Amino acid sequence: MTYKDYIADPARRCAVVAHRGAWQGAPENSLAAIEQAIAIGVDIVELDVRKSLDGELFLMHDDTLLRMAGIDRDAETFTMAELQAIALRADDGGEGRELTDQRVPTLKQALEIIRGRIFADLDLKDRDLFSEVAACARDMDAASYVDLKTTVMTPEHVAWVKAQDIGGVPFMAMASFTEGGIGQTLSVLSELKPFMSEIRFDHIDTIAANRSAFEAAGMALWKNTLDMANSGEWTDTVALTDPDKIWGRLIDAGISAIQTDQPAALKAYLEETCMTEISDDMLKALMADMRSVAEQEILPRFQAITSDTMRAKTAPDDVVTDADISAEHALSRLLAQRFPGIVVVGEEAVSDDRSILDRIGAAELVAIIDPVDGTWNFAHGVPTFGSILAIVANGKTIAGIIHYPVMGDFLVARPGQGAWHVSRDGAMSRLSVAGPGPISEMHGFVPLHMFAPELQAELAPRVLRFSRTTTWRCSAWEYRMLVTGAMSFCLNAGIMPWDHAAGVLIHAEAGGYAALVSGEGYRATMTDGFLLAAPDQQSWEEIRRALFED
User: Mean pLDDT across the chain, nearest whole number?
Assistant: First the structure.
Protein backbone atom coordinates (compact mmCIF):
# COMPACT_ATOMS: atom_id res chain seq x y z
CA MET A 1 0.00 0.00 0.00
CA THR A 2 1.29 3.45 -0.86
CA TYR A 3 1.28 6.39 1.54
CA LYS A 4 -1.56 8.11 -0.36
CA ASP A 5 -3.60 4.90 -0.47
CA TYR A 6 -3.13 4.44 3.27
CA ILE A 7 -4.27 7.96 4.08
CA ALA A 8 -7.28 7.62 1.74
CA ASP A 9 -8.28 4.23 3.18
CA PRO A 10 -11.73 4.71 4.80
CA ALA A 11 -11.14 1.71 7.06
CA ARG A 12 -8.08 3.08 8.83
CA ARG A 13 -8.11 4.59 12.28
CA CYS A 14 -6.28 7.79 13.21
CA ALA A 15 -2.62 7.57 12.12
CA VAL A 16 0.05 7.67 14.82
CA VAL A 17 2.95 9.92 13.77
CA ALA A 18 6.20 9.61 15.75
CA HIS A 19 7.95 12.99 15.95
CA ARG A 20 11.59 12.49 14.90
CA GLY A 21 11.00 8.76 15.18
CA ALA A 22 10.23 6.91 18.41
CA TRP A 23 13.07 8.56 20.31
CA GLN A 24 12.34 7.41 23.85
CA GLY A 25 15.02 4.74 24.07
CA ALA A 26 16.83 5.76 20.85
CA PRO A 27 18.32 9.07 19.62
CA GLU A 28 15.87 11.23 17.74
CA ASN A 29 16.21 11.17 13.94
CA SER A 30 18.34 8.02 14.16
CA LEU A 31 17.98 4.69 12.37
CA ALA A 32 17.25 3.11 15.75
CA ALA A 33 14.38 5.57 16.32
CA ILE A 34 12.85 4.54 12.99
CA GLU A 35 13.23 0.83 13.80
CA GLN A 36 11.70 1.42 17.23
CA ALA A 37 8.72 3.22 15.65
CA ILE A 38 8.17 0.22 13.39
CA ALA A 39 8.39 -2.14 16.38
CA ILE A 40 5.81 -0.10 18.32
CA GLY A 41 3.42 -0.17 15.37
CA VAL A 42 3.60 3.52 14.49
CA ASP A 43 2.12 4.46 11.11
CA ILE A 44 4.31 7.43 10.13
CA VAL A 45 7.66 8.83 11.28
CA GLU A 46 8.49 12.51 10.97
CA LEU A 47 12.14 13.09 10.08
CA ASP A 48 14.20 16.27 9.64
CA VAL A 49 16.43 16.56 6.57
CA ARG A 50 19.55 18.69 5.99
CA LYS A 51 22.47 18.74 3.54
CA SER A 52 26.10 18.18 4.50
CA LEU A 53 29.11 20.21 3.40
CA ASP A 54 29.86 17.66 0.68
CA GLY A 55 26.27 17.50 -0.57
CA GLU A 56 24.87 14.44 1.20
CA LEU A 57 21.32 14.53 2.60
CA PHE A 58 21.18 13.57 6.29
CA LEU A 59 18.84 13.58 9.29
CA MET A 60 19.12 16.24 11.99
CA HIS A 61 16.73 18.77 13.45
CA ASP A 62 18.85 21.50 15.04
CA ASP A 63 21.22 23.82 13.20
CA THR A 64 24.06 22.71 15.49
CA LEU A 65 25.15 19.40 17.01
CA LEU A 66 25.16 20.84 20.55
CA ARG A 67 21.98 19.18 21.86
CA MET A 68 22.40 15.81 20.14
CA ALA A 69 26.20 15.40 20.29
CA GLY A 70 27.61 18.09 22.58
CA ILE A 71 29.39 19.86 19.70
CA ASP A 72 28.62 23.55 19.28
CA ARG A 73 29.04 23.77 15.52
CA ASP A 74 26.61 23.91 12.60
CA ALA A 75 25.84 20.40 11.40
CA GLU A 76 25.91 21.44 7.75
CA THR A 77 29.58 22.49 8.01
CA PHE A 78 30.62 18.84 8.40
CA THR A 79 31.17 16.34 5.63
CA MET A 80 29.04 13.22 5.73
CA ALA A 81 32.04 11.11 6.72
CA GLU A 82 32.68 13.42 9.67
CA LEU A 83 29.02 13.33 10.70
CA GLN A 84 28.93 9.55 10.67
CA ALA A 85 31.89 9.45 13.01
CA ILE A 86 29.95 11.43 15.65
CA ALA A 87 28.04 9.52 18.35
CA LEU A 88 24.52 10.73 19.10
CA ARG A 89 23.14 11.33 22.56
CA ALA A 90 20.25 9.21 23.79
CA ASP A 91 16.60 10.18 23.41
CA ASP A 92 16.15 13.90 22.65
CA GLY A 93 19.69 14.72 23.74
CA GLY A 94 20.84 17.54 25.97
CA GLU A 95 23.36 17.61 28.80
CA GLY A 96 23.32 14.49 30.92
CA ARG A 97 22.22 12.16 28.12
CA GLU A 98 24.74 9.42 27.47
CA LEU A 99 26.32 8.88 24.09
CA THR A 100 25.06 5.90 22.08
CA ASP A 101 26.34 3.72 19.25
CA GLN A 102 24.03 5.57 16.84
CA ARG A 103 25.52 7.95 14.26
CA VAL A 104 24.00 10.70 12.13
CA PRO A 105 22.22 8.78 9.35
CA THR A 106 21.99 9.67 5.70
CA LEU A 107 18.57 10.06 4.15
CA LYS A 108 19.37 7.09 1.91
CA GLN A 109 20.00 4.89 4.95
CA ALA A 110 16.69 5.99 6.43
CA LEU A 111 14.82 5.31 3.19
CA GLU A 112 16.24 1.79 3.03
CA ILE A 113 14.48 1.09 6.34
CA ILE A 114 11.29 3.01 5.55
CA ARG A 115 10.56 1.53 2.14
CA GLY A 116 7.70 -0.96 2.41
CA ARG A 117 7.70 -0.92 6.24
CA ILE A 118 6.45 2.49 7.39
CA PHE A 119 5.64 5.93 5.96
CA ALA A 120 7.67 9.08 6.53
CA ASP A 121 7.00 12.81 6.66
CA LEU A 122 10.17 14.56 5.52
CA ASP A 123 10.55 17.99 7.14
CA LEU A 124 13.18 19.87 5.16
CA LYS A 125 15.15 22.45 7.12
CA ASP A 126 15.79 24.23 3.79
CA ARG A 127 12.80 24.10 1.48
CA ASP A 128 15.09 24.64 -1.51
CA LEU A 129 15.98 20.97 -1.09
CA PHE A 130 12.50 19.92 -2.29
CA SER A 131 13.48 18.72 -5.75
CA GLU A 132 16.71 17.12 -4.54
CA VAL A 133 15.00 15.17 -1.77
CA ALA A 134 12.27 14.06 -4.16
CA ALA A 135 14.92 12.81 -6.58
CA CYS A 136 16.60 10.88 -3.77
CA ALA A 137 13.30 9.25 -2.81
CA ARG A 138 12.68 8.26 -6.43
CA ASP A 139 16.21 6.87 -6.78
CA MET A 140 15.66 4.78 -3.65
CA ASP A 141 12.30 3.52 -4.92
CA ALA A 142 10.72 5.12 -1.85
CA ALA A 143 8.79 8.01 -3.41
CA SER A 144 5.41 6.45 -2.62
CA TYR A 145 6.31 6.01 1.06
CA VAL A 146 7.24 9.60 1.96
CA ASP A 147 5.79 13.09 1.74
CA LEU A 148 7.20 16.56 1.34
CA LYS A 149 5.53 19.58 2.93
CA THR A 150 5.65 23.34 3.15
CA THR A 151 3.37 26.21 4.07
CA VAL A 152 0.64 26.99 1.55
CA MET A 153 -1.51 30.04 2.35
CA THR A 154 -1.08 32.32 -0.67
CA PRO A 155 -0.97 32.12 -4.48
CA GLU A 156 2.78 32.77 -4.21
CA HIS A 157 3.18 29.64 -2.09
CA VAL A 158 1.22 27.67 -4.69
CA ALA A 159 3.43 28.95 -7.52
CA TRP A 160 6.59 27.98 -5.61
CA VAL A 161 5.39 24.40 -5.03
CA LYS A 162 4.35 24.00 -8.67
CA ALA A 163 7.85 25.03 -9.73
CA GLN A 164 9.45 22.15 -7.81
CA ASP A 165 10.24 18.79 -9.40
CA ILE A 166 8.59 16.45 -6.87
CA GLY A 167 6.82 14.11 -9.27
CA GLY A 168 5.82 10.83 -7.63
CA VAL A 169 6.19 12.16 -4.07
CA PRO A 170 2.94 13.03 -2.23
CA PHE A 171 2.64 16.65 -1.17
CA MET A 172 1.29 17.75 2.21
CA ALA A 173 0.36 21.37 2.77
CA MET A 174 0.87 23.24 6.03
CA ALA A 175 -2.04 25.61 6.56
CA SER A 176 -3.96 27.59 9.16
CA PHE A 177 -7.76 27.62 9.26
CA THR A 178 -9.94 30.28 10.83
CA GLU A 179 -13.71 30.55 10.97
CA GLY A 180 -13.81 33.49 8.61
CA GLY A 181 -11.02 32.39 6.28
CA ILE A 182 -11.52 28.69 5.78
CA GLY A 183 -13.14 29.08 2.36
CA GLN A 184 -10.27 31.20 1.05
CA THR A 185 -7.65 28.81 2.42
CA LEU A 186 -9.34 25.80 0.84
CA SER A 187 -9.57 27.69 -2.45
CA VAL A 188 -5.81 28.29 -2.41
CA LEU A 189 -5.09 24.65 -1.49
CA SER A 190 -7.34 23.40 -4.30
CA GLU A 191 -4.68 24.55 -6.77
CA LEU A 192 -2.34 21.83 -5.42
CA LYS A 193 -4.81 19.19 -4.19
CA PRO A 194 -2.63 18.02 -1.27
CA PHE A 195 -3.49 14.56 0.01
CA MET A 196 -3.17 15.83 3.57
CA SER A 197 -2.71 19.09 5.45
CA GLU A 198 -0.79 19.73 8.66
CA ILE A 199 -3.09 22.24 10.28
CA ARG A 200 -3.42 24.95 12.87
CA PHE A 201 -6.79 26.47 13.73
CA ASP A 202 -8.43 29.19 15.75
CA HIS A 203 -10.89 26.80 17.40
CA ILE A 204 -11.63 23.10 17.18
CA ASP A 205 -15.21 23.90 16.15
CA THR A 206 -13.88 25.51 12.96
CA ILE A 207 -12.55 22.12 11.92
CA ALA A 208 -15.50 20.06 13.16
CA ALA A 209 -18.05 22.27 11.40
CA ASN A 210 -16.29 22.00 8.05
CA ARG A 211 -15.58 18.29 7.85
CA SER A 212 -17.62 17.91 4.69
CA ALA A 213 -15.55 20.64 3.02
CA PHE A 214 -12.29 18.87 3.85
CA GLU A 215 -13.75 15.59 2.64
CA ALA A 216 -14.87 17.18 -0.60
CA ALA A 217 -11.32 18.48 -1.06
CA GLY A 218 -9.99 14.92 -0.66
CA MET A 219 -7.66 16.15 2.06
CA ALA A 220 -6.96 14.38 5.36
CA LEU A 221 -6.08 16.47 8.42
CA TRP A 222 -2.90 16.19 10.51
CA LYS A 223 -2.44 17.91 13.90
CA ASN A 224 0.59 18.14 16.13
CA THR A 225 0.22 17.68 19.90
CA LEU A 226 3.88 18.32 20.66
CA ASP A 227 4.86 20.24 23.79
CA MET A 228 5.62 23.36 21.82
CA ALA A 229 4.21 26.87 21.87
CA ASN A 230 2.58 26.55 18.45
CA SER A 231 0.54 23.57 19.64
CA GLY A 232 -1.51 25.84 21.90
CA GLU A 233 -3.65 23.85 24.32
CA TRP A 234 -3.22 20.64 22.29
CA THR A 235 -0.17 19.14 23.96
CA ASP A 236 1.16 15.69 24.80
CA THR A 237 1.54 16.64 28.45
CA VAL A 238 -2.19 17.23 28.81
CA ALA A 239 -2.99 14.21 26.63
CA LEU A 240 -1.06 11.86 28.92
CA THR A 241 -3.34 12.77 31.84
CA ASP A 242 -6.56 13.35 29.86
CA PRO A 243 -6.31 11.76 26.40
CA ASP A 244 -10.00 12.26 25.67
CA LYS A 245 -9.58 16.01 26.11
CA ILE A 246 -6.79 16.23 23.55
CA TRP A 247 -6.54 13.21 21.24
CA GLY A 248 -10.19 12.25 21.60
CA ARG A 249 -11.52 15.72 20.76
CA LEU A 250 -9.21 16.05 17.78
CA ILE A 251 -10.31 12.72 16.37
CA ASP A 252 -13.98 13.56 16.98
CA ALA A 253 -13.48 16.78 15.01
CA GLY A 254 -12.12 14.91 12.01
CA ILE A 255 -8.35 14.87 12.56
CA SER A 256 -7.03 11.57 11.20
CA ALA A 257 -3.26 11.89 11.80
CA ILE A 258 -1.67 13.05 15.07
CA GLN A 259 2.04 13.80 15.48
CA THR A 260 3.28 13.16 18.99
CA ASP A 261 6.36 12.59 21.11
CA GLN A 262 4.32 9.88 22.89
CA PRO A 263 3.54 7.43 20.06
CA ALA A 264 3.18 4.37 22.30
CA ALA A 265 0.68 6.19 24.52
CA LEU A 266 -1.35 7.43 21.55
CA LYS A 267 -1.40 3.97 20.00
CA ALA A 268 -2.56 2.45 23.30
CA TYR A 269 -5.29 5.08 23.59
CA LEU A 270 -6.56 4.33 20.09
CA GLU A 271 -6.65 0.62 20.85
CA GLU A 272 -8.46 1.14 24.14
CA THR A 273 -11.05 3.44 22.63
CA CYS A 274 -11.91 1.25 19.66
CA MET A 275 -15.63 1.82 19.48
CA THR A 276 -17.66 -0.68 21.48
CA GLU A 277 -20.88 1.26 21.99
CA ILE A 278 -23.00 4.06 20.55
CA SER A 279 -23.78 6.89 22.94
CA ASP A 280 -27.22 8.44 23.41
CA ASP A 281 -26.08 11.59 21.63
CA MET A 282 -24.64 9.63 18.72
CA LEU A 283 -27.81 7.55 18.42
CA LYS A 284 -29.86 10.74 18.19
CA ALA A 285 -27.44 12.17 15.64
CA LEU A 286 -27.70 9.06 13.47
CA MET A 287 -31.48 9.19 13.62
CA ALA A 288 -31.37 12.85 12.60
CA ASP A 289 -29.10 11.96 9.66
CA MET A 290 -31.47 9.22 8.50
CA ARG A 291 -34.46 11.53 8.79
CA SER A 292 -32.66 14.25 6.85
CA VAL A 293 -31.72 11.88 4.03
CA ALA A 294 -35.29 10.57 3.87
CA GLU A 295 -36.72 14.09 3.66
CA GLN A 296 -34.25 15.24 1.02
CA GLU A 297 -33.69 12.15 -1.13
CA ILE A 298 -36.47 9.60 -0.56
CA LEU A 299 -39.83 11.21 0.19
CA PRO A 300 -39.70 13.73 -2.69
CA ARG A 301 -39.41 10.76 -5.07
CA PHE A 302 -42.13 8.64 -3.43
CA GLN A 303 -45.11 8.11 -5.74
CA ALA A 304 -43.17 9.91 -8.45
CA ILE A 305 -41.14 6.98 -9.82
CA THR A 306 -41.15 6.53 -13.60
CA SER A 307 -39.56 4.05 -15.96
CA ASP A 308 -36.68 6.53 -16.34
CA THR A 309 -35.92 6.50 -12.60
CA MET A 310 -36.31 2.76 -11.94
CA ARG A 311 -34.18 -0.12 -13.23
CA ALA A 312 -34.11 -3.91 -12.77
CA LYS A 313 -31.07 -5.49 -11.10
CA THR A 314 -30.97 -9.31 -10.85
CA ALA A 315 -34.59 -9.94 -11.89
CA PRO A 316 -37.62 -7.98 -13.15
CA ASP A 317 -38.99 -7.68 -9.61
CA ASP A 318 -35.57 -6.80 -8.09
CA VAL A 319 -35.46 -3.09 -8.78
CA VAL A 320 -33.42 -0.04 -7.89
CA THR A 321 -34.48 3.60 -8.15
CA ASP A 322 -32.76 6.95 -8.17
CA ALA A 323 -33.90 7.31 -4.56
CA ASP A 324 -31.91 4.21 -3.51
CA ILE A 325 -28.74 5.49 -5.11
CA SER A 326 -28.90 9.13 -4.06
CA ALA A 327 -29.96 8.27 -0.50
CA GLU A 328 -27.12 5.75 -0.14
CA HIS A 329 -24.59 8.33 -1.31
CA ALA A 330 -25.99 11.01 1.02
CA LEU A 331 -26.11 8.77 4.10
CA SER A 332 -22.62 7.40 3.35
CA ARG A 333 -21.22 10.93 3.35
CA LEU A 334 -22.87 11.76 6.67
CA LEU A 335 -21.61 8.55 8.27
CA ALA A 336 -18.06 9.26 7.12
CA GLN A 337 -18.30 12.64 8.84
CA ARG A 338 -19.63 11.09 12.06
CA PHE A 339 -17.04 8.31 12.13
CA PRO A 340 -13.76 9.13 10.36
CA GLY A 341 -12.38 5.92 8.91
CA ILE A 342 -15.65 3.99 9.01
CA VAL A 343 -16.30 1.47 6.22
CA VAL A 344 -19.74 1.89 4.67
CA VAL A 345 -21.34 -1.19 3.15
CA GLY A 346 -24.41 -0.24 1.15
CA GLU A 347 -26.71 -2.48 -0.84
CA GLU A 348 -26.32 -0.52 -4.05
CA ALA A 349 -22.53 -0.28 -3.75
CA VAL A 350 -22.36 -4.05 -3.30
CA SER A 351 -24.47 -4.48 -6.43
CA ASP A 352 -21.57 -2.88 -8.31
CA ASP A 353 -18.76 -4.54 -6.33
CA ARG A 354 -19.58 -7.62 -4.27
CA SER A 355 -16.10 -7.68 -2.72
CA ILE A 356 -17.24 -4.78 -0.49
CA LEU A 357 -19.04 -7.40 1.63
CA ASP A 358 -15.67 -8.76 2.76
CA ARG A 359 -15.00 -5.51 4.62
CA ILE A 360 -17.66 -6.30 7.24
CA GLY A 361 -15.44 -8.91 8.83
CA ALA A 362 -12.13 -7.13 8.18
CA ALA A 363 -12.76 -3.55 9.36
CA GLU A 364 -12.92 -2.32 12.95
CA LEU A 365 -15.99 -0.18 12.36
CA VAL A 366 -18.61 -0.69 9.66
CA ALA A 367 -21.91 0.94 8.78
CA ILE A 368 -24.31 -1.34 6.90
CA ILE A 369 -27.08 0.53 5.13
CA ASP A 370 -30.15 -0.12 3.06
CA PRO A 371 -31.44 3.38 2.30
CA VAL A 372 -34.71 2.17 0.75
CA ASP A 373 -35.59 -1.29 2.01
CA GLY A 374 -38.70 -2.52 0.23
CA THR A 375 -37.80 -0.83 -3.03
CA TRP A 376 -40.48 -2.74 -4.96
CA ASN A 377 -43.14 -1.32 -2.62
CA PHE A 378 -41.62 2.16 -2.81
CA ALA A 379 -41.42 2.09 -6.60
CA HIS A 380 -45.08 1.10 -6.87
CA GLY A 381 -46.37 3.77 -4.51
CA VAL A 382 -46.88 1.47 -1.49
CA PRO A 383 -45.78 3.11 1.79
CA THR A 384 -44.39 -0.07 3.41
CA PHE A 385 -40.69 0.73 2.94
CA GLY A 386 -37.99 1.86 5.33
CA SER A 387 -34.35 2.83 5.81
CA ILE A 388 -32.06 0.48 7.73
CA LEU A 389 -28.73 1.22 9.43
CA ALA A 390 -26.53 -1.13 11.47
CA ILE A 391 -23.26 -0.07 13.11
CA VAL A 392 -20.90 -3.03 13.47
CA ALA A 393 -17.69 -2.91 15.56
CA ASN A 394 -15.23 -5.77 15.14
CA GLY A 395 -17.99 -8.00 13.80
CA LYS A 396 -20.54 -7.18 16.54
CA THR A 397 -23.63 -5.08 15.84
CA ILE A 398 -23.58 -2.25 18.38
CA ALA A 399 -26.57 -0.30 17.07
CA GLY A 400 -29.58 -1.07 14.91
CA ILE A 401 -31.81 1.70 13.57
CA ILE A 402 -34.81 1.37 11.25
CA HIS A 403 -36.52 4.52 10.01
CA TYR A 404 -39.99 4.63 8.45
CA PRO A 405 -40.00 7.80 6.30
CA VAL A 406 -43.76 7.96 5.71
CA MET A 407 -44.53 7.44 9.41
CA GLY A 408 -41.58 9.54 10.57
CA ASP A 409 -40.72 7.13 13.39
CA PHE A 410 -37.92 4.71 14.29
CA LEU A 411 -37.09 1.37 15.86
CA VAL A 412 -33.75 1.42 17.68
CA ALA A 413 -31.66 -0.91 19.80
CA ARG A 414 -28.22 -1.22 21.35
CA PRO A 415 -26.87 -4.35 23.09
CA GLY A 416 -28.19 -4.66 26.62
CA GLN A 417 -30.33 -1.52 26.43
CA GLY A 418 -33.61 -2.88 25.11
CA ALA A 419 -35.48 -2.18 21.90
CA TRP A 420 -37.44 1.03 21.53
CA HIS A 421 -39.98 2.70 19.31
CA VAL A 422 -39.21 6.41 18.85
CA SER A 423 -42.16 8.41 17.56
CA ARG A 424 -41.94 11.38 15.22
CA ASP A 425 -42.00 13.75 18.24
CA GLY A 426 -39.28 11.78 20.08
CA ALA A 427 -41.51 9.92 22.57
CA MET A 428 -40.08 6.48 23.37
CA SER A 429 -41.83 3.22 24.25
CA ARG A 430 -40.30 -0.17 24.90
CA LEU A 431 -40.81 -2.96 22.37
CA SER A 432 -41.63 -6.59 23.05
CA VAL A 433 -42.12 -9.58 20.76
CA ALA A 434 -45.27 -11.72 20.79
CA GLY A 435 -45.61 -14.29 23.50
CA PRO A 436 -45.18 -18.00 22.77
CA GLY A 437 -48.24 -20.01 21.76
CA PRO A 438 -49.46 -22.96 19.75
CA ILE A 439 -48.18 -23.23 16.17
CA SER A 440 -51.77 -23.23 14.92
CA GLU A 441 -52.31 -19.73 16.36
CA MET A 442 -49.11 -18.13 15.08
CA HIS A 443 -48.89 -15.53 12.31
CA GLY A 444 -45.62 -15.29 10.40
CA PHE A 445 -43.70 -14.19 7.34
CA VAL A 446 -42.59 -16.89 4.88
CA PRO A 447 -41.50 -15.47 1.50
CA LEU A 448 -41.78 -18.61 -0.59
CA HIS A 449 -40.46 -16.82 -3.68
CA MET A 450 -37.02 -16.52 -2.03
CA PHE A 451 -36.53 -20.30 -1.88
CA ALA A 452 -35.49 -22.76 -4.59
CA PRO A 453 -38.45 -24.35 -6.46
CA GLU A 454 -37.99 -27.78 -4.86
CA LEU A 455 -38.01 -26.26 -1.37
CA GLN A 456 -41.01 -24.10 -2.24
CA ALA A 457 -42.92 -27.28 -2.99
CA GLU A 458 -41.99 -28.68 0.42
CA LEU A 459 -42.73 -25.50 2.36
CA ALA A 460 -46.01 -24.60 0.70
CA PRO A 461 -48.16 -27.26 2.41
CA ARG A 462 -46.31 -26.84 5.70
CA VAL A 463 -47.15 -23.17 6.08
CA LEU A 464 -50.78 -24.27 6.40
CA ARG A 465 -49.87 -25.52 9.88
CA PHE A 466 -49.84 -21.87 11.04
CA SER A 467 -52.79 -19.55 11.46
CA ARG A 468 -51.53 -17.22 8.71
CA THR A 469 -48.36 -16.64 6.69
CA THR A 470 -47.58 -13.86 4.26
CA THR A 471 -44.73 -11.66 2.99
CA TRP A 472 -44.52 -7.87 2.84
CA ARG A 473 -41.41 -7.66 0.62
CA CYS A 474 -39.74 -5.40 3.18
CA SER A 475 -37.49 -6.50 6.05
CA ALA A 476 -37.92 -3.13 7.77
CA TRP A 477 -41.65 -3.62 8.10
CA GLU A 478 -41.51 -7.33 8.82
CA TYR A 479 -39.16 -6.70 11.76
CA ARG A 480 -41.51 -3.93 12.91
CA MET A 481 -44.36 -6.42 13.04
CA LEU A 482 -42.21 -8.92 14.95
CA VAL A 483 -40.93 -6.54 17.63
CA THR A 484 -44.34 -4.96 18.23
CA GLY A 485 -45.85 -8.42 18.78
CA ALA A 486 -48.16 -8.24 15.75
CA MET A 487 -46.50 -11.26 14.12
CA SER A 488 -44.78 -14.23 15.73
CA PHE A 489 -42.06 -15.35 13.35
CA CYS A 490 -40.19 -14.70 10.14
CA LEU A 491 -38.26 -17.07 7.88
CA ASN A 492 -35.78 -15.67 5.35
CA ALA A 493 -33.43 -16.99 2.69
CA GLY A 494 -30.69 -14.88 1.13
CA ILE A 495 -29.74 -13.17 4.39
CA MET A 496 -27.98 -10.03 3.22
CA PRO A 497 -26.59 -7.91 6.08
CA TRP A 498 -28.43 -4.71 5.13
CA ASP A 499 -31.71 -6.58 5.58
CA HIS A 500 -30.96 -8.27 8.90
CA ALA A 501 -27.98 -6.92 10.90
CA ALA A 502 -30.07 -4.15 12.49
CA GLY A 503 -33.31 -6.14 12.66
CA VAL A 504 -31.80 -9.15 14.44
CA LEU A 505 -30.38 -6.89 17.16
CA ILE A 506 -33.69 -5.02 17.60
CA HIS A 507 -35.57 -8.35 17.69
CA ALA A 508 -33.17 -9.79 20.30
CA GLU A 509 -33.44 -6.68 22.49
CA ALA A 510 -37.24 -6.97 22.26
CA GLY A 511 -36.95 -10.45 23.76
CA GLY A 512 -36.88 -12.56 20.60
CA TYR A 513 -34.63 -15.37 19.45
CA ALA A 514 -33.13 -15.69 15.95
CA ALA A 515 -30.69 -18.15 14.41
CA LEU A 516 -30.05 -19.98 11.19
CA VAL A 517 -32.22 -23.09 10.88
CA SER A 518 -28.97 -25.06 11.15
CA GLY A 519 -28.77 -23.80 14.73
CA GLU A 520 -25.84 -21.46 14.04
CA GLY A 521 -26.08 -18.00 15.58
CA TYR A 522 -26.56 -15.07 13.21
CA ARG A 523 -23.61 -12.81 12.34
CA ALA A 524 -23.54 -9.72 10.18
CA THR A 525 -20.92 -11.34 7.94
CA MET A 526 -23.37 -14.06 6.83
CA THR A 527 -25.01 -14.05 3.41
CA ASP A 528 -26.08 -17.69 3.02
CA GLY A 529 -28.54 -19.84 4.95
CA PHE A 530 -32.10 -19.66 6.22
CA LEU A 531 -32.68 -17.23 9.09
CA LEU A 532 -35.57 -17.88 11.46
CA ALA A 533 -36.74 -15.31 14.04
CA ALA A 534 -39.21 -16.38 16.76
CA PRO A 535 -40.58 -15.23 20.15
CA ASP A 536 -38.16 -17.43 22.12
CA GLN A 537 -35.84 -20.40 21.66
CA GLN A 538 -38.50 -23.02 22.39
CA SER A 539 -40.89 -21.44 19.89
CA TRP A 540 -38.03 -21.21 17.40
CA GLU A 541 -37.47 -24.97 17.64
CA GLU A 542 -41.18 -25.73 17.26
CA ILE A 543 -41.47 -23.46 14.21
CA ARG A 544 -38.33 -24.96 12.67
CA ARG A 545 -39.72 -28.48 13.01
CA ALA A 546 -43.09 -27.43 11.58
CA LEU A 547 -41.43 -25.93 8.52
CA PHE A 548 -38.64 -28.39 7.84
CA GLU A 549 -39.69 -31.73 9.32
CA ASP A 550 -42.61 -33.93 8.36
Answer: 93
